[in-house]
Specification:
Blueprint lengths: L3 H20 L10 E7 L2 E7 L4 E3 L3 E3 L8 E4 L2 E4 L11 H7 L4 E8 L2 E3 L9 E3 L24 E5 L2 H9 L22 H7 L7 E6 L6 E5 L7 H9 L9 E3 L2 E8 L16 E3 L9 H19 L14
Parallel strand pairs: 4-15
Antiparallel strand pairs: 1-2, 2-3, 5-6, 5-14, 7-14, 8-12, 8-13, 9-10, 10-11, 11-12
Helix pairs in contact: 3-5
The chain binds flavin-adenine dinucleotide (FAD).
Flavin-adenine dinucleotide binds next to strand 7 and helix 6.
Length: 319
């Protein structure tokens, strides 16, 4: 429950937010899929969508994530998609290859989502969030009322769990040749961890709440492309998860990316003037890196339009 004081703070915060949104009211939105880019010689001049709408623009920034040619792997079951329940995107990769770009395939993965009502919380270790509150968004204000924080919980895999996973490695698309693309550096799958660190008898996992009003938990550390039945069997060997129910299994996803050596430091492509790439399309690994690249591409597209100097950060400045 919000205290009367917190409610007043919240209303003040919402009002400040509304004022900030008014300031960006010149931004138009359109929800659709881009099927192809529109070129004029070696310049990009716009995009065309599935609804046959053409948008003309002197600068285009592609932030397509894992959606270009996205293919999800649940054991031997393969489903096209950019993420679960979201369609993959086709056409842009072929067009860019025809324009001289070099494309490759990368893969990443995600863990099962756990139903918190099926977890024996007494067999996990509580881990509270940060005590200090540091805002990240420019929309935040120092006196912003703090949202109630939810804790995470720590648990561990064990040798029985590793044995189940090891026994099913030939069903893992990562190990049986079904996937041959490489992943960005971080977030190794649980099957990769038991192979790479074969001497370890346990790996730490975190149950992270997906939101304040849901029973869904993200099982950080247990990313997997193994068949769903194997994932569930392995999870059930962990004491806190003996009776586990899941919302959905983990999976691996392969997608098209473009070697970032084809970019200038502004993130504008070397081949096509006015075309910028940001985020996972460049083979990035995580949220923060993708967000940082979006910012750099956006600033530089804007600066170029205004005839201003490029905004380029050195390695020692961009941390
Ligand atoms: C399964 C999975 C798990 C991940 N887990 C983590 C994690 O735990 N931690 C972490 O830091 N990172 C994780 N990542 C990576 C992280 O999600 C990405 O690095 C980051 O979101 C990439 O940001 P982005 O802006 O490049 O793309 P995204 O956030 O993927 O956004 C791409 C957007 O482009 C839209 N789009 C794509 N193609 C088209 C088109 N043709 N027309 C119109 N719209 C289009 C999509 O609908 C989507 O909204 C995960 C990624 C995946 C797929």
């Amino acid at each position: 429950m919000w205290s009367p004081r917190a409610q007043i703070d919240r209303m003040r915060f919402m009002e400040q937010w509304r004022q900030k949104l008014d300031a960006i009211e010149q931004l138009d939105m359109w929800q659709d899929s881009v099927l192809q880019l529109i070129f004029d010689g070696e310049n990009v001049v716009g995009v065309e969508t599935a609804l046959k709408k053409k948008f003309y623009a002197p600068k285009v920034i592609l932030t397509v994530g894992t959606f270009l040619g996205g293919l999800m792997h649940f054991g031997s079951t393969m489903l096209p998609g950019g993420r679960v329940s979201e369609p993959a995107s086709y056409g842009i990769t072929d067009q860019l290859i025809q324009m001289g770009f070099v494309a490759g395939r990368m893969k990443t993965g995600t863990p099962a989502r756990i139903d918190g009502r099926s977890v024996d919380w007494s067999l996990t270790t509580l881990q509270e969030g940060d005590a200090e509150f540091n805002a990240f968004s420019f929309l935040s204000t120092p006196d912003m009322p703090r949202m109630p924080q939810l804790p995470c919980h720590i648990l561990y895999t064990n040798e029985e769990c590793h044995e189940i996973l090891r026994g099913s490695l030939d069903e893992s698309p990562l190990y049986n040749g079904q996937i041959d693309s490489i992943g960005p550096r971080y977030c190794p799958s649980i099957e990769t961890k038991i192979v790479t660190f074969a001497d370890k008898t346990a790996h730490q996992l975190f149950l992270e709440p997906e939101g304040a009003v849901t029973n869904e938990y993200y099982l950080n550390g247990f990313s997997s492309s193994l068949p769903m039945e194997t994932q569930i069997k392995a999870l059930k060997s962990i004491p806190a998860l003996r009776n586990v129910r899941i919302y959905r299994p983990g999976y691996a996803i392969e997608y098209d990316y473009f070697d970032p050596t084809q970019l200038q430091h502004t993130l504008e492509t070397k081949q096509i003037a006015g075309l910028y790439f940001a985020g996972q399309i460049n083979g990035t690994t995580g949220y923060e890196e993708a967000a940082g690249q979006g910012l750099i591409a956006g600033i530089n597209a804007h600066n170029a339009l205004k005839g201003r100097e490029p905004f380029i950060l050195g390695r020692n400045e961009a941390t």
